[in-house]
Amino acid sequence: MTAAPAGPVAQECVEGYLYRRPPLELLVLRRPPSRGSIWVPVSGKVDPTDRDLEAALRRELTEETGLRRPAELWDLDWHVPFEGPDGATWRLHAYAVEVEAGFVPRLSGEHDAYAWLAPDEAERRLHYPDNQEAVRRLLVRLSDGTPSPRRNV
């Protein structure tokens, strides 16, 4: 990801950091070779038909992993502007998504592999620095018990 350009936000995006416990593990997804074979969280653009950011995230969770009902979902308060592929300013919004311990993702064509990893390994494997920072924020929130707002879904 490149530095954020000046100007209004042209595209909102969402990211979901799926985790399960105990033990704490995070889900990372690998893009196919045509998309760089990089490891990423669930992510996508907010579509005009999405009612809000959370609706966009729920749609992406279902599309990319088959997840329909997370155990919990909460905003990581991590909103990162970046230069999109079109040169315009895009902004991502990161969310934590707890899943049941036995959840097995059903991958779409957007990814060719997944891994449940310990947090330190997930942070190392994620390609983008903002993804790594989101994982650190998730870990802080989980360790100090202050995920806010925390909602059962």
Low-confidence stretches: none
Structural class call reads alpha+beta
Along the chain, the helix and strand elements come as EEEEHEEEHHE
CATH homologous superfamily assignment: Nucleoside Triphosphate Pyrophosphohydrolase
Strand content: 25-35%
The general outline is globular
3D structure, described in words:
With 153 residues, the chain is an alpha+beta fold. It has one domain: Nucleoside Triphosphate Pyrophosphohydrolase, CATH 3.90.79.10. 24% of the residues lie in helices and 35% in strands. It contains three helices and eight strands. It has helices at 53-65, 119-125, 129-144, and strands spanning 9-20, 25-30, 39-40, 42-45, 72-83, 89-98, 113-117, 151-152. Strands 1, 2, 3, 4, 5, 6, 7 and 8 form an eight-stranded mixed beta sheet that branches. Helix 2 (119-125) runs antiparallel to helix 3 (129-144). It starts with 8 loop residues before the first strand and ends with a strand. The mean pLDDT is 93.
